[in-house]
Design brief:
126 residues; globular
């Protein structure tokens, strides 16, 4: 979580030796702006998230200092992943919804018993 993608990006690129495509997406549903860094030699993406407005759901986290917010897993089926996590005593935070940053693919959120916030990104159809 960052206050400004434009101000923070150069430090992340340097620290992570990341590659940035300079694309920033606005997700009006989640009220955030996001961008991604590609970690060289891997499929790992680092997402930087910035509140798009004062009432963004991520604003409170940023006011506490920001930092690592959650881990995201790409899954075949969000509903199946949520059923699995319910069996592991995770609490549903947000039901599956389309996400602008992922071309309309569905995302869902859970909070584990260990207070780890997890995002599930549904794979593209086909």
């Amino acid at each position: 979580m960052v206050a400004s993608i434009e101000q923070a990006i150069s430090g992340f690129v340097y620290s992570l030796n990341g590659v940035w495509d300079r694309k920033i997406s606005l997700d009006p549903t989640q009220r955030v702006r996001v961008t991604f860094l590609q970690c060289p030699g891997s499929d790992v993406l680092i997402e930087l998230v910035e509140p798009a407005e004062e009432k963004s759901p991520v604003q409170a986290f940023l006011e506490k200092g920001g930092g690592l917010h959650h881990l995201c897993y790409e899954v075949r089926d969000c509903d199946a992943a949520l059923r699995l996590m319910r069996g592991r005593k995770a609490m549903l935070v947000k039901r599956p919804n389309p996400a602008v940053a992922f071309g309309g693919r569905r995302i869902a959120w859970v909070l584990t018993a260990e207070k780890l916030l997890l995002e599930f990104l549904e794979q593209a159809a086909g």
